[in-house]
Structure of Diacylglycerol kinase:
Amino acid sequence: MGSVLFVLAFELLNSAIEAVIERYGPEIHELAGRAKDMGSAAVFVALCNVALTWAVILVG
C-alpha cells in the first residue's frame, strides 16, 4: 500500500507544480514546459515502482 500512496503523493506534487505554472502566466515558456514534463516523469517513475513492487510480491 505504501507504494500506491507514494504515487498519490507524487501526483499531488505534480498538480501543485502545474497549478503554480498556470498561475504564473498564460504565456508558453520552455522552462515551464520542462517543469511540467519533469513532474509527469516523477509520477511515471513512481508508477513503475508500484509495478515492480507488486511484481516482486506476486512472483516471490
Summary: The mean pLDDT is 94. The chain has one domain: 2-59.
